[in-house]
Amino acid sequence: MTESKNAIFVIPGTSFEGGEMLQNALKAKLDQARYDFFLFDLWEKKGRLERLTIREIQESIEITALHIREKGYDHIIGLGKSFGAGVLLSGNTDVFSELFLISPAIAFSNAAPGSITQFRSVPLGKIPSIMDITIGKTELGKVSTQITIIHGDEDRKMPIDNSINLCNSLANCSFVPVPNMEHSLSTDDYSEIAKLISRHV
Question: Where are the domains of the chain?
Fold first, then answer.
């Protein structure tokens, strides 16, 4: 019997360094013989990020995920932090086997559709605040991928209640609160998140 190939595809927040720290923390917790890691580095330089649109980022993520699958990986985990988590949630989630979203920076809205629809083709440098981009309940209801949302209860940039509302609107979502964790993560926070994820994969 052929052993399955597992990939973890890390999409960082606007700070590329955060993605590297998250990936390294996971590598320390998981059996690296079972998982291969891929770090999405499209916006390693902030100036590049400001010129990109969410649509361009999501299309690049989808193409990369499909390429990973073509390489023989039958289980692909999408792992996003903050902005990266919001981009994952509002994109084509079907290319992933499951998603882990850490403090997703996309605001829940009862409106349908959310403002993500109008902002998708706008360069990020022209959007007043990424934190103001919203996704509607109707859009979330179309997502069938298994999702785990991890959020700190001391987050002041994107309050924990937002993630609770996102999770409650998704068909297959588990919510994991983390005590005393803020939006900007410390080394200890990354280690704790890696420990949580290792229990679920």
Answer: 6-200
13-21 own/partner pairs: CB under 8 Å, 24+ apart: 13/81, 13/82, 13/83, 13/84, 13/85, 13/105, 14/43, 14/46, 14/49, 14/82, 14/83, 14/130, 16/41, 16/43, 16/44, 18/81, 18/82, 18/185, 19/81, 19/84, 21/185, 21/187, 21/190
Taking the CA atoms of 106, 109, 115 and 116 in sequence, report the sign of the dihedral they define. positive
Q: Which CATH number is associated with domain 6-200?
A: 3.40.50.1820
Three-state SS annotation for 124-145: HHHCCCHHHCEEEHHHHCCCCC
Write out pLDDT tens, residues 14-62.
876 778 888 888 888 887 668 899 988 776 655 688 889 999 999 999 9
Under a CB-based contact definition with an 8 Å cutoff, are residues 8 and 198 in contact?
no
In order of 75, 89, 144, 185, the CA distances from 141 in angstroms are 23, 12, 8, 29
Question: How distant, in Å, are the alpha carbons of 3, 6, 50, 62 from that of 40?
Answer: 25, 16, 16, 11
The structure tokens 């409650």 sit at 168
Amino acid at 83: F
Q: Which residue, 128, 4, 28, 127, is CA-closest to 76? A: 4
Q: Which two tokens stand for residue 152?
A: 């700190």
